[in-house]
Design goal:
Elements (H helix, E strand, L loop, with lengths): L1 E7 L3 E8 L4 E8 L11 E2 L1 H15 L8 E8 L5 E3 L9 E2 L7 H10 L3 H5 L8 H11 L1 H6 L2 E3 L1 H10 L3 E3 H5 L4 E2 L4 E2 L1 H7 L8 E3 L4 E4 L2 H6 L7 E3 L2 E2 H9 L7 E5 L3 E7 L11 E4 L6 E7 L3 H11 L3 H11 L7 E3 L17 E3 L7 H21 L9 E4 L6 H11 L3 E4 L5 H15 L3 H4 L5 E5 L3 H21 L16
Parallel strand pairs: 1-5, 5-14, 5-15, 9-12, 16-22, 22-23
Antiparallel strand pairs: 1-2, 2-3, 4-7, 6-8, 10-11, 13-14, 16-17, 17-19, 18-19, 20-21, 23-24
Helix pairs in contact: 1-6, 2-4, 10-15, 11-13, 12-13, 13-14, 14-17
Length: 493
């Protein structure tokens, strides 16, 4: 028995081939491009997700074990707004999670459904699907009227794989249209957004079967037997399944393009005043709390791209010379921010530049700025946890970044086996559950710890002093804004 996990990430699609012993036997990635047609906007072509999926899977098909794939699991970036027509084709590019145009629509949604935060787990913010659909209804009315189905990123790929329009509880939660306690679509919110229940995908648990691989796809991939496709999950929750964070109190830090601090809960208990997201988990009867930061390892990718250097080489330069906090300060808000600021207009900034500033200085400041944003997110939780924190995502490749994060958070961080493949590996675990019906506790076990990095006491004290400056810098620059909301008048109906 082999399982295929596919993660539709923001910068790339990652696919992993996992055997019955839960070992990753092969993996591959294929890039995905993002467009910023206006300041504060962020869009992707849904067809690119499918193209990248086929590219990544083509690499895995070279492994003889691929012919034994029995189930597929999907994970992916959350909150995309994809409008599909009657034929299941995307009507326009997807508006993705770090798009900030729907500010006015958030206010309107909160006014129309005053209890939305208690129903859906958090207050309306521009990155969620619901306000983006309201923006499309107001500004692209003709396309909105053509919409027959709403889809999320991973579920566009599901449709191509199975022919079924469905989603899982976590991605449904990320639309801000799910009644979290009931684990079903909320009629009042759908009405306020302007969509019909029939336009929404079927909602399944992440560990449940959602359909079977279409015969044509199975034949193209060389699979001669039925292949189940699982419900899957949004990237952070799928990553939690991959790291074994499925019991009350289990936590993790995800450092991908964005960043999240995630805590599993055995009941739904929203606390909207904190801007912590309270969402349904990928497994039945479980929820999670999440501090969602829009700017994670993507910030380091950005500065590497601007400088024209390889990101791993740049991180290596910081590693080779790191001794103390940088003299620079970096605000990492390249895409605005959610927890705990709810400020889609926030923007990034460097402070303290001088002629002697090097690219290594810039990179270290970026790492520290992201770490300070994580500290802000951690501070939003009602209970301040100091237990060891497993880390997943591409940012784990840099050990020095893990040292910086440990020192800033004052918390031991754990580098674990398979950490870079977290969501894709978690999707493969969900595929196994859908196939075998095993107990989640048997499959979603915690991986071996490769290294525990404790906070350096001296660095922790130094960063604590710098954090005060970080918050003061953000406060001082709040009035420096780039456009985040579309200024065009609403389209004529």
């Amino acid at each position: 028995m082999h399982l295929l996990g596919i993660d539709i990430g923001t910068s790339a699609v990652k696919a992993v081939l996992v055997d019955a012993g839960q070992r990753i036997v092969a993996q591959a990635t294929a890039p995905v491009a993002t467009a910023q047609p206006r300041p504060g906007w962020s869009e992707q072509e849904p067809e690119d997700w499918w193209r990248a999926t086929l590219q990544a899977v083509a690499v895995l098909r070279a492994d003889p074990a691929f012919a034994d794939v029995r189930a597929v699991g999907l994970s992916g970036q959350m909150h995309a707004a994809v409008m599909l027509d009657q034929a299941g084709q995307a009507i326009r590019p997807a508006i993705i999670w770090n798009d900030g145009r729907a500010v006015a629509e958030c206010r309107a949604l909160a006014e129309t459904v005053p209890d939305i935060a208690n129903i859906a787990g958090v207050i309306p913010m521009p990155g969620f699907t619901a306000p983006k659909l309201m923006w499309l209804r107001a500004h692209e009315a003709q396309d909105f009227r053509r919409m027959r189905h709403v889809a999320l990123a991973k579920d566009v790929v599901r449709l191509r794989l199975t022919g079924d329009i469905a989603t899982d509880m976590t991605d449904a939660a990320g639309t801000l249209m799910l009644d979290e306690a009931r684990r079903d679509w909320s009629a009042p919110i759908l009405q306020a957004v302007g969509v019909e229940p029939r336009q929404m995908p079927q909602v399944l648990e992440g560990s449940a079967p959602s359909g079977q691989l279409r015969p044509a796809i199975a034949a193209e991939w060389g699979l001669a037997h039925p292949v189940i496709v699982a419900g899957g999950g949004g990237d952070s929750a799928a990553g939690a399944a991959g790291i074994g964070a499925i019991a009350e109190g289990d936590s993790l830090l995800s450092l991908g393009t964005s960043a999240q601090i995630f805590v599993t809960r055995d009941r739904y208990q929203p606390r909207p005043e904190t801007l912590i997201h309270a969402f349904a988990h990928v497994l039945p009867g479980r929820w999670f709390e999440q501090a969602a930061m829009l700017n994670g390892a993507g910030c380091l990718d950005w500065i590497a791209r601007v400088l024209g250097v390889d990101v791993d080489a740049l991180a290596g330069e910081v590693e080779a010379h790191f001794a103390a906090p940088s003299r620079l300060m970096f605000l990492p808000y390249l895409a605005g921010e959610r927890t705990p600021l709810n400020d889609p207009g926030a923007r990034g900034a460097f402070a303290g530049l001088e002629y002697a500033t090097s690219r290594r200085d810039l990179a270290q400041a970026v790492m520290e700025g992201v770490a300070f944003a994580l500290l802000e997110g951690q501070s939003a939780f009602a209970v301040q946890r100091l237990d060891p924190l497993p880390v997943i995502g591409g940012g784990t490749r840099s050990r020095v970044w893990m040292r910086i994060i440990a020192a800033v958070l004052g918390r031991t961080v754990l580098r674990v086996a398979g950490s870079e493949s977290g969501p894709a590996f978690g999707a493969a675990r969900l595929a196994r559950l859908a196939l075998t019906g095993e107990a989640p506790e048997v499959v979603c076990i915690k991986p071996p710890v490769m290294e525990a990095i404790a906070p350096d006491p001296l660095l922790h004290d130094q960063y604590a002093a710098r954090f005060t400056d970080y918050r003061a810098l953000y406060a001082a620059l709040r009035r420096v804004r780039a456009p985040t909301a579309d200024r065009r008048p609403a389209a004529t109906p």
